[in-house]
Write a structure and sequence with these properties.
Elements: H1 3-10, H2 12-19, H3 22-28, H4 34-48, H5 51-61, H6 67-80, H7 83-93, H8 98-103, H9 108-123, H10 129-155, H11 163-183, H12 189-211, H13 217-220
Helix pairs in contact: 2-12, 4-7, 5-6, 5-9, 9-12, 10-11, 10-12
Length: 223
């Protein structure tokens, strides 16, 4: 069994728990209100805006023995730079207050997820960052592939309101192929353990972020 296959198998329970969160289930089905979509985008902004700082911190803490992983993080940094602006644009186009989101604070669950990742990279093992990459890219594929179109249709919002989600569908499918190959080159048991540990924790914390988004299923089904 390759390490990527092991990563998928050993995080399956946490992944299924995330995918059962009502906000995510209803979002993928298009059963959410505009207010819920805007609330999701606000939290997306606050964690997406930390992606490049997190990737940079992880890269800078890796030693020469991890040169291939440093190079991979350089690629991720190049590709992820500026994505938080896509989120702000979607907020504005969907009728939200992008400036208020940019100047505001995340919900506690989002703040804790980001803080955990920063702490683990700085204090334990920067290779753990790949566990977060695995969770976020895998989830964004599911959201982009199924959710953007369904929400657009249900709410009558044009494609210009979904630039972040829609772009990540095709982007992250390619990223995941690259990621799988990269993970299969991780040989150090300590690095493998770090990636697995962070992936499990981020699945839980990301689920908490979705649960924190205001959402009334009864109203959403009436949209």
């Amino acid at each position: 069994m390759s390490f990527f296959e092991r990563l998928e198998r050993e995080t399956s329970a946490e992944r299924l728990a995330l995918y059962s969160v009502p906000q995510l289930v209803d979002g993928v089905a298009g059963r959410i209100t505009r207010e819920t979509y805007l609330a999701y985008l606000a939290e997306a902004y606050h964690h997406v805006s930390q992606t490049v700082p997190l990737l940079t911190a992880a890269r800078d803490r890796m030693d020469a023995a991890h040169a291939p992983f440093r190079a991979a993080l350089d690629e991720y940094i190049d590709e992820e730079t500026g994505h938080e602006k896509w989120v702000l644009n979607d907020i504005a186009r969907a009728g939200g207050d992008a400036e208020a989101v940019r100047a505001g604070a995340p919900r506690p669950a989002t703040e804790l997820m980001v803080a955990y990742a920063h702490d683990y990279v700085a204090r334990v093992n920067p290779m753990g960052m790949f566990g977060m990459v695995y969770v976020l890219e895998g989830t964004s594929i599911a959201l982009a592939t199924h959710g953007a179109g369904a929400v657009s249709k249900a709410l009558g919002l044009g494609p210009e309101c979904f630039s972040y989600l829609s772009s990540h569908g095709s982007l992250d499918q390619e990223h995941m192929k690259f990621f799988a190959g990269l993970m299969d080159t991780v040989e150090d048991p300590a690095d493998q353990a770090a990636i697995l540990h962070v992936a499990k924790r981020i699945f839980v914390l990301f689920a908490d972020m979705f649960r924190s988004i205001p959402h009334e299923a009864r109203l959403a089904h009436a949209v």
